[in-house]
Design brief:
The complex is a heterodimer of chains A (207) and B (186). Chain A is built from eight helices and eleven strands. Chain A is α/β, with parallel strands linked by helices and 207 residues long. The radius of gyration of chain A is 16 Å and the shape is globular. The relative contact order of chain A is 0.18. Chain B is of the alpha+beta class. Chain B has five helices and ten strands. In chain B, strand 4 (97-104) and strand 5 (107-114) form a beta hairpin. The relative contact order of chain B is 0.19. The chains are: A alpha/beta (207), B alpha+beta (186).
Chain lengths: 207, 186
């Protein structure tokens, strides 16, 4: 299956307890596509800031090299097109979608294993250190959104920032929600960097 | 004017006018310059396009008919009171208005466009932007708001477009998290 899906939670700014899951689809762009991933639709969907951060992160992150296998979609299907299946005109702040977009591109290129995952996190790029994922004070509300997905047949990774606010670990602050999601086979994985996120996906899918 | 050319009645009228002006000059000013400055300081900042008549009328309260609102969605949790991503316009839930917010130094530029049929309906009228509060029961229920409850009043032109510069303050940013757009009753 060459189509990959990344679900990105987004909450209302005035009432963070309300929100929805944005469905990012990554699939072959088809004949006539150029050599690069097609990201124009994401700009139109209000994800320009996140796309820029994801591209910068992928160019600096210390990740495993791209697969050169003949059965890799990236090799024989050409570059992907990325778009939202449920675009929202009211999406006004998109930086937290950067981790999802970066992982979507890595999933398609098979540099990160899996078909479908959930991700939230704004990426901070610096040349000297790994690509950091910033804290997210609305993480609990975003985790609640994932409860609506219900029970999953296959393990579904949910990559989240390791801290809710500076110094407050996600693991302790959101322990109850993390346990509730685990019962639905949705595995919340707090991570500090993009490199850690890819390694966590590898552990979850392979192991 | 030659005094000889005037009739007696005209001369009397002229002298009355001169005396009246002289009396007015001798009356002291109703308030000192300092007192006037204090009163002006207590008033809200003046919106760019606001006329003196509008300012006096709106000081007693603004007739405001809420039309629609903008519900902002965020994938990140950046600053406490975030502005929209640069270049990202906000659209009302009914698709009738588009609001673009641009920050420049300590000022915000709010640009409103009425879209589609709303352009004809609201051209050449005043549109207000307010923070959604307890006063909001439903769209189209008119209320009278204190001028300070409104973030901005924008005069739309014939194309249904208008803009306004306002100070970048936390109250304004809070209002822009879920702004209500309404018609200011003239």
């Amino acid at each position: 299956m060459s189509r990959k899906t990344v679900l990105i939670p987004a909450v209302e700014l005035a009432e963070p307890e309300h929100g929805e899951l944005l469905e990012l689809l990554i699939e072959p762009a088809g004949l006539g596509a150029g050599a690069e991933p097609q990201l124009e639709l994401l700009y139109a969907h209000g994800l320009g800031v996140a796309v820029a951060a994801a591209q910068a992160a992928l160019s600096t992150a210390r990740l495993p090299p791209p697969a050169r296998s003949l059965i890799s979609p990236a090799t024989w299907l050409g570059p992907p097109v990325l778009y939202l299946a449920n675009p929202r005109a009211n999406l006004s702040n998109a930086a937290g979608a950067a981790l999802g977009i970066a992982l979507g591109l890595l999933l398609y290129a098979q540099r990160c294993p899996g078909q479908r995952l959930l991700a939230t996190g704004a990426l901070t790029i610096s040349v000297a250190s790994p690509v950091k994922i910033g804290p997210d004070r609305w993480l609990a509300d975003k985790l609640k959104l994932a409860l609506a997905l219900g029970s999953q047949e296959q393990p579904l990774p949910f990559l989240v920032p390791a801290q809710v606010t500076p110094g407050v670990p996600t693991q302790t602050r959101c322990a109850v929600l993390i346990a509730a999601l685990a019962r639905l086979n949705i595995h919340v994985v707090p991570v500090n960097s993009l490199e850690e996120a890819v390694a966590a996906c590898r552990r979850l899918v392979d192991g | 004017m030659n005094k000889q050319d005037l009739s007696r009645d005209e001369q009397l009228a002229l002298w009355k006018l001169v005396l009246q002006r002289l009396e007015l000059m001798s009356v002291p000013a109703p308030l000192s310059q300092e007192a006037a400055r204090e009163i002006l300081a207590s008033w809200l900042p003046r919106w760019g396009h606001e006329t003196l008549g509008e300012r006096i009328r709106w000081a007693e309260g603004v007739g405001f008919e809420p039309l629609t609102e903008i519900v902002r969605l965020a994938a990140d949790s950046g600053p406490e009171l975030p502005l929209p991503d640069p270049g990202r316009p906000l659209e009302t839930v009914d698709g009738c208005f588009r609001l673009t917010v641009t920050a420049e130094a300590d000022q915000l530029l709010l640009q409103v466009e009425a879209l589609g049929f709303a352009m004809d309906e609201f051209a050449n009228r005043h549109i207000g932007i307010a923070r959604r509060g307890e006063w909001y029961t439903s769209a189209a229920t008119p209320v009278t708001l204190a001028a300070e409850a409104l973030v901005a009043i924008i005069a739309l032109n014939a194309d249904g477009e208008g803009e306004c510069w306002i100070a970048d303050r936390p109250e304004v940013r809070a209002a822009l998290l879920r702004p209500v757009i309404g018609l200011v009753k003239d």
